[in-house]
Each structure stands twice: as structure tokens, then as C-alpha cells.
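Let us practice reading a record.
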Amino acid sequence: MVGFWLKVERKIDLVYGGGSVGLMGLVSQAVHHGGRHVLGVIPKTLMPREITGETIGEVKAVADMHQRKAEMARQANAFIALPGGYGTLEELLEVITWAQLGIHRKPVGLLNVDGYYNSLLTFIDKAVDEGFISPMARRIIVSAPNAKELVRQLEEYEPEFDEITSKLVWDEVDRLSYVPGSEVAT
């Protein structure tokens, strides 16, 4: 349903992890068969495990998971997490952290089908209550039980930044280099 809605209703292209198996494999097929552009970004090591049969759309092989996430972040206009496991959670938390730090200003959404992410959202709300996550940072995440509502919320999303984060310039960080033995970046 997600892939059908993205391709037919919204004419949205897809950037994803590149596999042809599982839920994202089905979404990528639906989007691709609907005539939209599909870009899969996958580490070379995972290709034998994650790609079975014919590839879907354009596949970009990268060296490792870090390059995969960076390339997906560069290519995407928003991030949507479907129900998934450890890999989904790791990638989700990283893009949330990047938004919190001002590395990107793209919306982050949870497709909360049948309340799949309710426990995670409760955990995050508890972290806000306990002072570990700011209320502003909590608003980085939007969630909805269906694709139509989630995309509407993502389109309406306006990023917020505190005074410190808004002054960070991450291009300068990219130029930092580590000098062996110094214990600091220069």
C-alpha cells in the first residue's frame, strides 16, 4: 500500500537501502513499476544477502554502511521509517541525531502501522520528561498510522533549531582531520 500510494497518488521517487527482499523490497518494486525513479544504495558486502534476483531501479554500490547512510541522506528530501528491526532503528536514530545537530533540515517520519512504534515514541517522551531530550528535539519526529497522513505531516514540517545548533557549520567539520597521536582533530 505504501509503494502504491507513493507512486500513484503523490508521484514520489524513492531512495532506500537497495535490497530486493522484505518490506522495502516490496515498496521499491511498487514505486518502480509505477514509473517513478528508485535509487537503492547498498554496501557491496550486503549485495549477495540483500539482492535476490533482478535489481530494482538504479543501484549504487558503496563501500560500507557509513557511506550508504551518507549517500541516502544526500539524495533524500525526507526520511520515512517503516516497521523494521535493528538496522531500521539505527538509521532512524542517526538521521534524528543529524537533524538535532543541524546536519540536515529534512523531516523524519515514522509510519506507525498498527502502533508499531508506540513503545519507541513512549520511550522518547519519557526521555523528554526526564530532561534527556529537549521538547524541541522531540518535534523532529513526526508519525502517523498511514502513508497519506505521514506524507502530509512531512510536507508541513518546519525544522526548529536552538541558538547553538543554528550556528554550527558542518562543512567546516568535514575539513577536520585527525592527526595520529594528538588525540584531537585539527
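A brief commentary: The first strand starts at residue 14 and ends at 16.
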